[in-house]
Specification:
Oligomer: heterodimer
CATH architecture of the largest domain in chain A: 3-Layer(aba) Sandwich
Number of helices of chain A: 15
Number of strands of chain B: 5
CATH class of the largest domain in chain A: Alpha Beta
Radius of gyration of chain B: 13 Å
CATH superfamily of the largest domain in chain A: NAD(P)-binding Rossmann-like Domain
Order of helices and strands of chain A: HHHEHEHEHEHEEHHEEHEHEHEHEHEH
CATH architecture of chain B: Roll
CATH class of chain B: Alpha Beta
Strand order of the largest sheet of chain A: 3-2-1-4-5-6-7-8
Largest sheet of chain B: 5 strands, mixed
Shape of chain A: elongated
Strand content of chain B: 15-25%
Distance between the termini of chain A: 26 Å
Number of domains of chain B: 1
Helix content of chain A: 25-40%
Number of strands of chain A: 13
Chain lengths: 397, 94
């Protein structure tokens, strides 16, 4: 896994926070006048070191609230650059940040919010090789990542180092938050010993997220982090908080420490970090699941054949709301409906199936071939590749 | 016994897009069998080839994990809620 610029951890300033300046007293006055925080709590915040893994949707509100609250040292781990699709939810960034490394834009924003705190910009992808070295300097780790390999990596590293892991995840309208790795509490592997195989993870058809959802979930992670630091209240340990923004409802499930847990159980088998890409069945973080090879046609070949006037039936297997964003004038049968609507298709005609990226339509092609269709091809790279290679006026999403 | 099974968002596409489904069952196993007989596509997402619940899918009766009750033989009562909880990884990219 490539590192863009290597790790730039500022050396720790291990001076205890002995007092607040006059300006800090003013800045934090709404904390100081609450007995639950007070001067004691504010000094704990000043002395605290929190590592935020990911500066995306969850990391944005988290970073902002931790910086605003006066957490003395905040580490930020990310390797991405800001792109325009981030702005719908990643409120750390402005339109003018598009193209900048996230770490750089985030550091500037947090410094602007609170110049008294230390920000450690760590522009790298967290790996089994660097995780323990990066995490060891911090008191609390907050996981705002978006993929299984990093989730398991962060969990195992936190357990090995004995650090709490404030966990949040989001999907469409739903979020989950809990605190793993707290003394006596469960860890991520107590809940899910193993990740799902890549083929069974929801495809891009079911993706997407309501922009405000990571704001709510990230803010809850921030609240739990601040509570852990000041040692007040009831931490979200052994409880999985579920939030549904559509129903506007919170629920809670009990999380128990699994005595058989491979990471934190009595007979633990995980004593060092492993290859998490392999563990999750993927080679490389962003690599798609190994796909069964189905017969394909490239966008350019398809365009040439359509221009020649060949009789080709274009089958669009995306969802109706995706069709509204852009389409190739194809016939819409969402992948999930294909089995019951297969009789609408004429097996004597040549069929080219497409979706957004070519993944769902590959499934469709496989299904149709197993159903006896012989002349069916997958549009390689989907409508995104069509936009790149044939018609740039087709918007990408 | 009528119990409510809450379908998690990622699996709703395989359950007629419903948020929850009411089934008649006396145990968790019966409830899940009833569910997958109505929605065949759900089966491979919930159960491995050997018929056991997949390790990345947890099932709760009300707020308790059935792994710490009687697993799929956990009895359910009228009005109980069964939650299916697959692991989701989403963060910044959702």
């Amino acid at each position: 896994m490539a590192t863009k610029t290597g790790i730039q951890v500022t050396p720790p300033t291990d001076k205890p926070a002995v007092a607040l300046s006059k300006e800090e007293v003013m800045r934090y006055s709404r904390h100081l006048i609450m007995p639950e925080v007070g001067m004691e709590g504010q000094l704990k915040l000043k002395a605290a070191k929190v590592l935020c893994i990911g500066t995306g949707g969850l990391g944005a509100p988290l970073g902002l609230y931790l910086a605003a609250a006066g957490v003395g040292r905040i580490g930020l781990v990310d390797f991405d650059s800001v792109d325009s699709t981030n702005l719908q939810r990643q409120i750390l960034f402005s339109t003018s940040d598009v193209g900048r490394p996230k770490i750089e834009a985030a550091s500037d924003r947090l410094h602007g919010l609170n110049p008294d705190i230390q920000i450690d910009p760590i522009e790298t992808r967290l790996t089994s090789e660097n995780a323990l070295e990066i995490l060891k300097d911090y008191d609390i780790i907050v996981d705002g990542t978006d993929n299984f390999p990093t989730r398991y990596l962060v969990n195992d590293a936190c357990i090995l180092l004995g650090k709490p892991n404030v966990y949040g995840s989001i999907f469409r309208f739903e979020g989950q938050v809990t605190v793993f790795g707290h003394p006596g509490g469960p860890c991520y592997r107590c809940l899910y010993p193993e990740p799902p195989p890549p083929g069974l993870v929801p495809s891009c058809a079911e993706g997407g997220v309501l922009g405000v959802l990571p704001g709510i979930v990230g803010a809850i992670q921030a609240a739990e982090t601040l509570k852990l630091i000041i040692g007040k209240g009831e931490p979200l340990v052994g409880r999985l908080l579920l939030f549904d923004a559509l129903a506007m409802r919170f629920r809670e499930l009990k999380l128990r420490k699994n005595p058989e847990c491979p990471a934190c159980g009595e007979h633990r088998t995980i004593t060092k970090l492993i290859d998490y890409a392999e563990f999750c069945g993927i080679r490389g973080e962003e690599a798609p699941a190994p796909q069964t090879t189905v017969p394909e046609i490239t966008p350019r070949e398809l365009k040439a054949r359509l221009d020649r006037g060949d009789d080709i039936f274009i089958l669009d297997v995306r969802e109706p709301h995706e069709y509204q964003i852009c389409n190739l004038g194809g016939n819409l049968i969402p992948l999930g409906d294909l089995s019951k609507r297969v009789n609408e298709l004429d097996s004597s005609r040549e069929i080219v199936a497409h979706c957004r990226t070519g993944k769902r339509s590959a499934e469709a092609v496989e299904f149709l071939r197993s159903a006896g269709f012989r002349k069916v091809l997958n549009l390689k790279g989907g409508i995104l590749a069509w936009s790149d290679e044939v018609d740039p006026s087709v918007p990408k999403y | 016994m009528a119990v409510k099974v809450i379908i998690p968002t990622p699996l709703r596409a395989y359950a007629g897009k419903q948020e929850s489904v009411e089934v008649q069952a006396a145990t968790v196993a019966e409830a899940l069998t009833s569910l997958t007989s109505r929605f065949g596509e759900l089966k491979k997402h919930l159960f491995a080839e050997d018929g056991r619940l997949r390790s990345f899918v947890n099932v709760y009766v009300n707020d308790e994990d059935i792994r710490y009750l009687q697993k799929d033989q956990t009895r359910v009562r009228e009005g109980d809620t069964i939650s299916i909880m697959p692991s989701i990884a989403g963060g910044s990219r959702g």
